[in-house]
């Protein structure tokens, strides 16, 4: 599902700027620095697809990534030597989901206005995005669910958008703590209406939990 090259195809800062709903979509949300870029890069096996949150410009927008199925030469079928020198255009896969990188939240230096803008964009995006199959809410395994995360889960519950909690940076914990954190987090989300009743523990650094994560996404898309 994730084999093959991925492209950054679109960025939206406002709701009238969303790409058309084509195929299935999965989205990733989490606090700034939770390891969201690293996880998206590990998933797609591309080193710099999702840039780290410290790259200016891409922070307060929804970024859309699609898998390249093949490339088509420009002007195929027509003659003209000039055209054939142009770069081929990518044709995107309809089998792999579009990956949506949501802006990181909870960054301390961000003011109330930015938070309000984030919330509005997210609300607008979630509302009526019929091809959005699931939102993966990333939580730092060392810290667990904080208040800002709880507010996001609340938003997803209210919008009735199916989501799954994924712990990141699992390698930073000892095995016993990994188990404890996974179970404690599950206890916190198990009564939430839109939460998928399973918490995954991952590490982009070691690749732990990645096969399980890929399999979980595969099952969602096959539903
Ligand atoms: P983002 O802001 O959520 O996109 O987070 P990044 O992917 O940029 O990662 C933030 C920081 O966490 C960086 O310093 C990464 O090196 C670190 N990090 C990301 N993933 C892991 C992981 O799996 N294990 C550990 N130990 N650190 C990680």
Automatic annotation (TrEMBL):
The keyword Nucleotide-binding applies. InterPro entries: G_ENGB_dom, GTP-bd, GTP-bd_ribosome_bio_YsxC, P-loop_NTPase. Transmembrane segments: none annotated. Gene3D superfamilies: P-loop containing nucleotide triphosphate hydrolases. Its cofactor is Mg(2+). Belongs to the TRAFAC class TrmE-Era-EngA-EngB-Septin-like GTPase superfamily. EngB GTPase family. Necessary for normal cell division and for the maintenance of normal septation. PANTHER family: ENGB-TYPE G DOMAIN-CONTAINING PROTEIN (PTHR11649:SF13), MSS1/TRME-RELATED GTP-BINDING PROTEIN (PTHR11649). This is Probable GTP-binding protein EngB. It comes from Bosea robiniae. The gene is engB.
């Amino acid at each position: 599902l994730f084999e093959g090259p991925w492209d950054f195809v679109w960025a939206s800062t406002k709701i009238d700027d969303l790409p058309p709903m084509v195929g299935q979509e999965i989205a990733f949300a989490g606090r700034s620095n939770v390891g969201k870029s690293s996880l998206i890069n590990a998933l797609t096996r591309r080193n710099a697809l999702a840039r780290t949150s410290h790259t200016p410009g891409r922070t307060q927008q929804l970024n859309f990534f699609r898998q390249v199925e093949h490339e088509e030469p420009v002007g195929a079928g027509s003659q003209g030597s000039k055209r054939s020198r142009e770069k081929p255009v990518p044709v995107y896969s309809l089998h792999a989901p579009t990956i949506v990188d949501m802006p990181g939240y909870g960054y301390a230096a961000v003011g109330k206005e930015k938070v309000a803008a984030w919330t509005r964009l997210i609300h607008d995006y979630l509302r009526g995005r019929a091809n959005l199959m699931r939102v993966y809410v990333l939580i730092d395994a060392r810290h667990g669910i904080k208040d800002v995360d709880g507010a996001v889960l609340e938003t997803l519950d209210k919008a009735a958008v199916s989501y799954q909690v994924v712990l990141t940076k699992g390698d930073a914990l000892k095995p016993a703590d990994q188990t404890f954190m996974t179970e404690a987090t599950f206890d916190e989300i198990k009564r939430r209406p839109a939460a998928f009743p399973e918490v995954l523990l991952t590490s982009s650094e070691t690749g732990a939990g990645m096969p399980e994560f890929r399999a979980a996404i595969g099952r969602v898309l096959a539903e």
